[in-house]
Amino acid sequence: MNVKRVIAWLLLAFVIFFIVTQPETSADMVRSAFRGLSNAASGFANFVTSLF
């Protein structure tokens, strides 16, 4: 079996285990990640707008 495939399956199993055992922490992490992406997109939009 390919090493990358084994690592991918282990990572997926860990993520599922983490979500099942700590759902509130998992939800907070997802919210934080989306908030960061939103802030980055907003900053980029402000930068592009300031160029014109």
Could you characterize what this model shows?
With 52 residues, this protein is mainly alpha-helical. The chain has a domain at 23-52. 92% of the residues lie in helices and 0% in strands.
Short characterization:
It is built from two helices and no strands. The protein is mainly α and 52 residues long. The model has no long low-confidence stretch (mean pLDDT 94).
* Biggest beta-sheet profile: none
Decide which structural class fits the backbone. Answer: mainly alpha
Tertiary shape: elongated
Residues in helix, %: over 70%
Radius of gyration: 18 Å
Overall number of strands: 0
How do the helices and strands follow one another from N- to C-terminus? HH
Continuous helix count: 2
Low-confidence stretches: none
Distance between the termini: 54 Å
Overall mean pLDDT: 94
Strand content: under 5%
Q: What characteristics describe this protein?
A:
mainly alpha; 52 residues
Topology:
Elements lengths: L2 H19 L1 H29 L1
